Amino acid sequence: MHCATKRIAYRDTFVDELYEDIGRLVTGDAVDAHLVEARLRLLARTNSAATAAYWDHHEDGVGVPDSAYKASPPYLFPDREPVRVFETSNTTGTGTGRVAYTPRGMELMKTSIVRNAGARLLRGLAEPAVIRLVPSEQAAPRMIMAHGMEVIARRFGHARLSSCVLDGSGVDRHALRRLLGHAVAEERPVVLIGATSVFVNLCQSLREEGESWRLPSGSRLVDAGGHKRDRRVSVEETRAMAARVFGIEPRGHCNLFGMTELASQLYDGWDTAVGPLGERPKASEPFVRAQVRAPDDLSLLERGAGLLEVVDLCVLDRPCALLTGDWGLAHPAGVAVTGRVAKARQRGCSLALDQVTAERNDHG
């Protein structure tokens, strides 16, 4: 173990080896995840005085609150200029935080996204039409949801039939009809992926106009969280809408949890209703896991509701544990994400996308 007495540089051998081991862990090599986590903690404690002080006050390794990224965002490598900065809105949507990535941080995020999507989302599908209900990465370069979905589409999607259908005016219905029409004609499965709020708004609009599709067998819906501001939508309601409007079977639906501060995405694991609105438990991987902490003393909970914490070993550029602003429900089947701590408030990306699709008329 590196015995650090001063800041660990980005090109230090310690970081070189840690980066390589994280990549090997994600791709399935025999790497000790506990040792990787311990080294990430040492890096964060050494390179961030604020993180060290926070851990001294609470517990070594406890998640840094996501609110820290709205004030003084931790970044562990001041000797390396970030190559990418993503923005995260606060829960009211009135301000932004900044999350910086080094080249290695970006590469680890890509590796994690591809590994998890291939195993949890796209298994058994060959070049589906990946249709994203988000702006393109070019149009929204600082929205991590746009970046992550672009990575998935480029790696797994059919080149001609995979596209974004959301812009500043709402959902481009002409583009959506064209892509779905070609996919149906070719009997090519479709993967619809985007914020829950956008999907709900779209389905309500399509139902009012009597428009629907019967998508090819194997088609899937991935809702990436966030809800309309007036009420939350249950898993069963979401699945019913997917079946009525797109002909997607219930088993073709899953929820994705991601945050700007995280490199990895969490997908539903077991198709077992755990949360009050039917939320499914998230699948843990050797490189990322969800857990729950008690709100009063931040102790870990094996059962029951508390604050959601995500430990993401693919996070290199900042502390790898994040204490989110979400409620988590610990269950023997895993941890379900059951909503934001602040009542009736949304995560940044979902809030912004909901405003686009709910407050403006869809064009087409």
TrEMBL record:
Organism in which the protein naturally occurs: Streptomyces diacarni
Source lineage: Bacteria, Bacillati, Actinomycetota, Actinomycetes, Kitasatosporales
Protein's recorded name: Acyl-CoA reductase
InterPro entries: ANL_N_sf, LuxE
GO biological process: bioluminescence
Domain Acyl-protein synthetase LuxE: 183-355
GO molecular function terms noted in the UniProt entry: long-chain fatty acid--protein ligase activity
